[in-house]
Design goal:
Strand order of the largest sheet: 1-2
Shape: elongated
Strand content: under 5%
Number of helices: 12
Distance between the termini: 34 Å
Largest sheet: 2 strands, antiparallel
Structural class: mainly alpha
CATH superfamily of the largest domain: Rhomboid-like
CATH architecture of the largest domain: Up-down Bundle
Protein name: Rhomboid family protein
Keywords: Hydrolase, Membrane, Transmembrane, Transmembrane helix
Number of domains: 2
Pfam families: Rhomboid
CATH topology of the largest domain: Rhomboid-like fold
GO molecular function, one term: serine-type endopeptidase activity
Helix content: over 70%
Order of helices and strands: HHHHHHHHHHEEHH
Membrane topology: Multi-pass membrane protein
Length: 272
């Protein structure tokens, strides 16, 4: 217990408060859900075209999480690397860095979503203008490949066998609209973007510090760890555009962290 107390007490103030807020909001979300209150709908980040979007979500989504594991790994990574950055930079600069990288992550994530949704919406409208089994099949394959196999079995194959069916055409139109609504209304939660920014900051300040990996359990210099993680996120973001993980948000946190540190390094006369 004394070791745990010392660990908590040695955590710098801004980092400690960020972790506490994340934990409290997660617990509040779990409790309020039982009473029919969906806190995620108010505080998660929605695409600006969604009816649920509110400007404050650009900040509040950083303090929301999808589950215990999501919360734990984000807070553990933030604590492990963030406490060192706050001790080196001071609390004010660390707080600015945390929110700047979190906002940068949200900005890149929303930009990527804009291109994805705009592309899908264009194909959706084109499909409606020439609705057929072929155009529906192409629309699903291009934009919702994760549902392609199930829809082939449940709807598309039947429609190919009976292309004149008004009911199957209506069903296909309804499915397409449902998928578009889902794409627009997917909420984004988590401090991951800012955590990746903190990881990048640690790698830039202490590039030759060795980090012990969990899988596989081998040591690796921080600079190589950061570069490897960034490469993985870029690959996954490109290869898995429909993933539930916001890979480009992670990259956004790293990119904005890099730019901010480079800017600060040029302004050596101003340090918070």
């Amino acid at each position: 217990m004394n070791g745990l107390s010392r660990g908590i007490n040695s955590t710098p103030p801004v980092l400690k408060n960020i972790i506490i807020i994340n934990i409290l909001l997660f617990l509040a979300t779990e409790v309020l859900t039982k009473f029919g209150v969906n806190l995620t709908q108010y505080l998660a980040l929605y695409y600006p075209g969604s009816e649920y979007f509110r400007p404050h979500q650009l900040i509040t989504h950083m303090f929301m999480h999808a589950g215990w594991a999501h919360l734990f790994f984000n807070m553990f990574g933030l604590w492990m690397f963030g406490k060192i950055l706050e001790q080196v930079w001071g609390s004010k600069r660390f707080m600015i860095y945390f929110f700047a990288t979190g906002l940068g992550a949200a900005a890149l994530h929303l930009l990527v979503n804009y291109f994805m949704i705009s592309h899908a919406m264009g194909e959706y409208k084109a499909m409606l203008n020439t609705l057929s089994p072929e155009t529906f099949d192409a629309f699903i394959r291009s934009n919702f490949s994760e549902y392609y196999g199930a829809l082939n079995q449940e709807l598309t194959d039947k429609w190919y066998s009976n292309p004149g069916s008004a009911q199957l055409a209506a069903d296909a139109q309804g499915v397409a609209k449902l998928l578009m609504d889902r794409m627009i209304n997917i909420p984004t939660v988590g401090a991951s973007g800012a955590v990746f920014g903190v990881l990048l900051g640690f790698g830039m300040l202490f590039p030759n510090t060795e980090i012990m990996l969990l899988f596989p359990p081998i040591p690796m210099k921080a600079k190589y760890f950061v570069m490897g993680y960034g490469a993985i996120e870029l690959y996954l973001g490109i290869s898995q555009p429909g993933s539930n993980v916001a890979h480009f948000a992670h990259l956004g946190g790293m990119i904005f962290g890099f730019l901010l540190i480079k800017y600060w390094n040029k302004k050596t006369t101003t340090f918070y």
